Amino acid sequence: MITKKSSVTKRKRGRLLLIPLFAITLVMTVLAGCSSNQTPSGSTATPGSSTPAPTVEADQSKDFVLRIGYGGSLCEAPLHMAYEKGYFEEEGLKVELTKLAPGTIFDAVTANQVDAGFSLLASLVQPLSNGLPVKITTGLHTGCDKVLAKKDSGITSPADFKGKKVGVPSMTSSPIIFTKRVLADNGIGVGVQNSEVEFVVYSTTDLPIALENGAVDAIAMNDPTATIAANEYDLNVVFDSALDAPYKDQYCCSAFVRENIVTDYPDIAAKYTRAMQKASAWVQENQDEAAKIQVDNKWVAGDAEVNAKVLKTFNYIPSVSGAYDAFGITAKQLQEVGMLDAGVDVDNLHKNSFTALDGIPEEYK
Q1: Signal peptide location in the record (predicted)?
Q2: 144 vs 192: CA distance, rounded Å
């Protein structure tokens, strides 16, 4: 059973009650030698015997329905294809997909409305440090973020950002994290105490307009909206996490599950992770078809041809160690630029944010 929903719903799950068999033989010597045998409701006993038939250990996960949250972004292609291409069913996994408003998946996790999802690694670091109850299970792909500027702006390198304003979708989003990482790596101050760049928040749809009107000097966005904006407004791509070293080799997105799923239903967590890995590997070989399916079935908006070009800049070879390595690099840099509290034990956070599941390939091709 696979269901796809457009809003958050509460799900009631039946609980399986296991009742052991007891043989109760009552010898009633007082009441004229009458006797009777009683069997607990729901159990069975072997006829003509006082020894009950053995019970079969029930599979507690066979009726479990995994609640998966998604936001409808292009790079979620592995999640969309796991549904469309039957990889969840292939794993014997029952799922319920719920579309969430952008940026609300961690709230849904905290409210116990979803059990699993897909997220940018950079966006996971701070929530995990604050106790978000999830475990990362695998990396899925590289890419996602771009920084754009007008062609006549004179902004072509990190040094050109000194004293400039950069529009971002939020102060905790992946685009601002990517921008700060690039600038910090090139000696530009972006910390609270030494900022040489001003970051200003606009809605995603307003970012290109703010740049066009001169309210900001550059904008940082996720794809495909970044590519659409670059094409529509004839903008330069100053930084691209899918193409610029060393970021192009660092995984940006991952699959995660709630901690209680890892603890209570590790087989469910493994099935979800394998399905996502299989789907990601399929996307790597079929970007045109994946983009068409996403648009035709309304997983994402936009033009399938444009979206396919963006997908082709990402590396969709899933990797557990790829996610682990990228998380460690990003977490340390976030602490250095003041986006992660100085008191956080980054090494401990790094280790505790991941889980090892049985039967999960280190890299799936």
Answers
A1: 1-32
A2: 25
